[in-house]
Amino acid sequence: MKTLIIAIAFVAIFFTSPSHGADVEHKHEGQALEPSTSFSTEKASCENIINIKVNGLVCDFCARSLEKVFLKRDDVAGIKVDLSKSSVVVATKSGLTIDDTSLKNLIKDSGYNVTTIDRGCKDE
Amino acid sequence: MKSAIFILCCMVSLGYAFQALSRPVSYPGGWTVMQKNDKNVHSVHLHYSPTARYSVGYRTEYWRDEGWQFQGVQFNYLVKRHNAQDSQANFYLKGGLGIAYDNFGLPNEEIEPASFIDIAVDWETRRYFTSYENRLYYAADIDRFFRQKARAGIAPYLGDYGDFHTWLMLQTDHIASEGNEVTFTPFVRIFKNEYMGEVGISNKGEVLFNLIIRF
User: Fold this and answer.
1) d(CA B89, CA B95)
2) Does the A27-119 domain belong in CATH 3.30.470.30?
3) Cα separation of B52 and B30, whole Å?
4) Which residues in chain B have their CB less than 8 angstroms from residue A79's CB?
5) ipTM given for this complex
6) What angle, 0 to 180 degrees and rounded to 10, lies between the N-to-C axes of helices A2-15 and B2-15?
7) pTM for the model
8) Which domain holds residue B131?
9) Chain A to chain B, count of Cβ pairs less than 8 Å apart?
10) Quick one: average pLDDT of A79-84?
11) Can you tell me the distance from the alpha carbon of B122 to that of B106, in angstroms, rounded to the nearest whole number?
12) Among A42, A97, B29, B213, which has the minimal tally of Cβ within 10 Å of its Cβ?
């Protein structure tokens, strides 16, 4: 029972850690777009928005790889993942873009498959 | 008490040093730490994925009842991933090579070469999860066994990306060398962002506690 109590205590500590969830925001300070999953497509020019539909996007925890893969690129300003729509919205930095082949490879490296790629703002 | 200290040390060292993930193979350049404890074994596995296809890493284990330890390297290979619109399935092969030692530092100390091979499959949707994994272990005169583990789970609610997620799960363990005894462990899986924890108690009263962090 002591082991269980210790285990639960450490789970609580991890989820309340001050560093928890803060690394993405700090990693890209000073950029025009907030480079996180919470970025707003309204802040980005429509020409910098890429809407990607993917297969296999069922797990939040696993989908973190999308952030890791895309946000380490210099041409990516932000990424937004929507599990219910199986979609990934990528915002590139002004004047930069990512071609379809590269996008498919990046999605595959993240563990998924691309079904469609649309560019520009979409009416929700 | 030794188990509690072991868990405590691992949590402190891993929790504040890393962020990791649960898959045996990560994204290119990704690191993973898995720290698991159940009625049989305490283990820590740290691996690095050069590509999205395989990973290499270090593994250490302490087998509680028998009292022996394993230290070695582990190789994980993603044989096949099937992505469907609402589901994902994975098939992995794993292998480990290292040394096993028993009664370390004592007059009757034993050190033997050890290895294992492992097959793992899983299938999941946003609502349901199933997996199966087996392991054939060879540690010369120290231990030899075949272990199987199956899991099934359901998410009581569907969280969005970034939400706090909860799964209710059941794990079934079977080790052939233990008289074909089967252990059932209901547990709760919780995760948010890069942090995942699992806590449960088996039908024999043994605690399951796993921590997986992604970085």
Assistant:
1) 20
2) no
3) 9
4) none
5) 0.78
6) 10
7) 0.79
8) 2-214
9) 130
10) 94
11) 42
12) A42
